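User: Show me a protein chain along with its predicted structure.
Assistant: Here is one chain, sequence first, then structure tokens.
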Amino acid sequence: MGAFFLKELCMWKIAVGFAVFAGLALFILSKGGDIDMSGEKHGDTTHTEAPAAPASAAAASK
């Protein structure tokens, strides 16, 4: 009976620790600014390089 009581005594500490850690994580993420937690984006063009200069602009400078 002593070991069972010891496990029950420890379980609430794990639950409280998890709740505190989850709350802290949500607080930090909410203060982080523009954080996108919606997953992977397909077809998103925000991370591409700048387009090359048009050929007509290069020909005009000659």
